[in-house]
Specification:
The protein is of the alpha+beta class and 342 residues long. It is built from twelve helices and twelve strands. The protein has helices spanning 4-20, 26-32, 37-47, 76-79, 86-100, 108-122, 124-129, 145-157, 256-259, 288-297, 307-323, 334-337; strands spanning 24-25, 62-64, 69-73, 159-167, 172-186, 189-196, 201-206, 210-219, 243-249, 264-267, 278-284, 301-305. A five-stranded antiparallel beta sheet has the order 7-6-5-4-8, with helices on one face. A four-stranded antiparallel beta sheet has the order 10-11-9-12. A hairpin with a 4-residue loop joins β2 (62-64) and β3 (69-73). α2 crosses α3 (37-47) and α10 (288-297) packs across α11. The radius of gyration is 26 Å and the shape is flat. It comes from Kineococcus gynurae. Residues 246-321 form the WCX domain. InterPro entries: CBASS_pafABC_assoc_protein, PafC-like, PafC_HTH, WCX_dom, WYL_dom.
């Protein structure tokens, strides 16, 4: 399922392509963009109501595909290449050069390519950007400077690190030796990717959960099987030992499928729990966080499987209600919503 941002990027690329290939067959155009013919038609239906401000018929793109071939017109303004003003070019160049100094950048080649192309296109503006420097050293409200500094040292000197790491899902601190592979930022958070000797596998550690990082006088070369994961595809990879959890969600809880990494989101099947409009499937290495989530959702969700999780949630909800002096009746909110579906 494509995100709105990804779809917008495709639509912006689609307009100039289709203008240059008037009469292209639907199947060929869909193959070019790596989508199905049905998805292409949905995009064309959206283009049909897009255009320049004014919303009059002549302001909208004219898209036709009834014959199996695609024709666009009245889209030249959108397809025209954007031109950067001098101040815009300078701002972009300074931003990209600043980004290049950020440690843990995992796609440096793409950044260098963008810098080279923009510098060439900017001409005189590129020389103006060279005299601007940005100090990106942040304040340290989360106390990350110490651990990150130690991890950078370990990466530079190829040394093993002893981590004291907080695992909130189990409310415990663990001490483990790791061979650092890289520091990276994903969605505004710092992570250490490393070979964990305790787990005997590659793991991602959130920097704000590292309470201490001691650089050891031992070689920190990761073993050959320590392969970096593709964080662009998915931050956390499923493990064969994970528990498969299936939930039915009422309308007020459908945000779960957007906020949490789920394997699938589909319409609630016929015969499911009556308030349900969605069924989501996810994997959890530790189901305790799922149990807490279900208690928050109350009567907005119901566990389809596993049955053991449904019973755990029901017992926790019943205990919570008892603490408030409330009976665990079928109208008991979370306790009722935690019952396994038939």
């Amino acid at each position: 399922m494509k995100t709105p941002t990804e779809r917008l990027s495709r639509l912006l690329a689609m307009v100039p392509y289709l203008l240059r290939h008037q009469g292209i067959e639907l199947e060929e155009a869909a193959e070019h963009f790596g989508i199905s013919t049905a998805d292409l038609i949905r995009d064309l239906e959206l283009l049909f109501v897009c255009g320049t401000p004014g919303h009059l018929p002549d302001d909208l793109i004219d898209a036709r595909w009834e014959t199996g071939r695609v024709y666009l017109s009245n889209a030249e303004a959108i397809a025209r290449p954007a031109r950067l003003a001098v101040d815009e070019a300078v701002a972009l160049l300074v931003g990209l050069r600043t980004l290049a100094d950020v440690p843990g950048l995992h796609d440096r080649d793409s950044l260098d390519g963008a810098l080279a192309k923009l510098s060439e296109a900017a001409g005189e503006a590129a020389r103006g950007a060279e005299v601007v420097a940005v100090d990106v050293r942040p304040a340290d409200p989360d106390g990350l400077a110490g651990p990150i500094a130690a991890l950078r040292t370990a990466l530079r000197d190829n040394r093993r690190v002893r981590l004291t790491y907080l695992v909130p899902a189990r409310d415990e601190r663990t001490v483990r030796d790791v061979d650092p592979m890289r520091l990276l930022t994903v969605e505004g958070r710092w992570y250490l990717e490393a070979w964990c000797h305790r787990a005997e596998g590659v793991r991602l550690f959130r920097a704000d959960r590292i309470e201490a990082a001691e650089v050891l006088d031992a070689d920190g070369t990761p073993p050959p099987q320590a392969v970096p994961r593709d964080v662009d595809a998915a931050l956390f990879a499923a493990s064969p030992g994970d528990t498969v959890v299936v939930l039915d969600l009422a309308p007020q809880a459908t945000w779960v499928g957007e906020y949490y990494p789920v394997e699938s989101v589909e319409k609630a099947p016929e015969g499911a729990w009556a308030p349900a409009v969605q069924r989501v499937r996810l994997r959890a290495a530790d189901t305790r966080w799922v149990r807490r989530l279900l208690l928050r959702l109350g009567d907005g969700a119901r566990v389809v499987q596993p049955a053991a999780l449904a019973l755990e949630v029901r017992e926790a909800a019943t205990a919570a209600l008892a603490g408030y002096g409330l009976p665990a009746t079928p109208e008991g909110g979370a306790a009722e919503g935690a019952r396994p579906s038939p």
